[in-house]
What does this fold into?
Amino acid sequence: MTELLQYLQNLLGVAWLPIWTVVKILVIVVPIMLTVAYLTLAERKVIGYMQVRIGPNRVGYFGLLQPLADGLKLLLKEIIIPSGSNKFLFIIAPILALTPALAAWAVIPFADGLVLANVNAGLLYILAMTSLGVYGIIIAGWASNSKYAFIGSLRSAAQIVSYEIPMGFALVCVLMVSQSMNLGDIVLGQKSSVGLFGWYFIPLFPMFVVYFISGVAETNRAPFDMAEGESEIVAGFHVEYSGMAFALFFLAEYANMIMIAILTAIMFLGGWLPPFDIAPFNLLPGIFWLLAKTSFILFLFLWFRATFPRYRYDQLMRLGWKVFIPLTLVWVVVLGAWMQTPYWLW
Amino acid sequence: MEKITNFFKTFLLLELVKGMALTGRHFFARKITVQFPEEKTPQGFRFRGLHAQRRYANGEERCIGCKLCEAVCPAMAIHIETEERDDGTRRTTRYDIDLVKCIFCGLCEESCPVDAIVETRVLEYHGEKRSDLYYTKSMLLAVGEKHEAQIAKDRASDAKFR
It folds into this structure.
């Protein structure tokens, strides 16, 4: 394998680095796209099961070909551009929504050293990228020239601004504890002889909850799906979109969900570390543990959607500004004091 | 004091956990979906599906053209024309039911003095044009002929309640 890589490197010369990077990017992006596709199926199945139905089961065994059928349908549909819309922005909005959702994956460590870009300020990069996603939504809402889309995008903008702050503060706590912005180092900082008790969700439990709930709000998922709000503003920011343009928004939403799930796993649940550093657990490869934790959190996303009714807009704002922000601020101070005492064990 | 304890209780998210426990339980519950083409829900003998016209055992059609069904039909879906037959009896020359208008209330069936117009258990039928669902006398008689055994059985089951 190494010989083959060496041979190719000599063969391609200067072109080697870009080609090799593209290969690595594809190795990350293609599985993400597949996961997104099957997450939609999982969502329909899980919600169906919780509503005592069985969900899609006609296309392929257990409905396993359903995502492919859906994708094909969306590909073949016409993209209708409303006559009053701003065509350029209308087309570019879905691209703007999807790109940051995928770009953020560059710094995600899948196992020890298995990362596309080992950036020192990885955490900052993640924060920047996840916040950029909202521009796609705002532009989509504005460019559509439709009142529902506009209301949806306004809501989304306000919501993301409100929840970015507690999310940032929660990450500041992680930062304080791990003393690093590099995601790989954050995971390694959670390594200890006591297995899962060394993970950051124990000392930072309130922040873990706040981060996860803010993450749900950040990805516009139920019960915070104000931007879509099917029952009140039809579909929110993407009412006017059809075909593949709509599919891109869909992909972006689910890619963001997976992103938040994997980030929660990395920051609070020990990333690729096994829950106990003893025989059956540490024999499995690290990526298995990371994916298992991520899947569990994704299941929580679906569970939330099946359980909770949508927040009212003012309740949403209240939760963000009057509960989460004070709570995180207090916890930052408490944590700072706690870390100076001998009772700090992490 | 209670206000204060409640305030701190909200941070424990107890209500949310309760809700999630409920949906979590249902996740494992037996599913009630009826998988339609393979499985079907049971039908009663008074099921009101596609209409049919019946005949007596000797082949004579039951309908005497009294137009009670036409009069009672709340959706005005029935259209009847009658004339005198050679043997002096009144018979229908047209008996049409527009199934697009029909609301399947069963009043025609109830009003019929000779059990001529009935609603069968057939519910899987379709038309590709609106006119396909405009059932004429011959079509209704054909439906009746096809399902006579089931229709007679259902009438017999219902007889003791009438």
In short: Chain B touches chain A through 16 residues (CB under 8 Å). The mean pLDDT of chain B is 89.
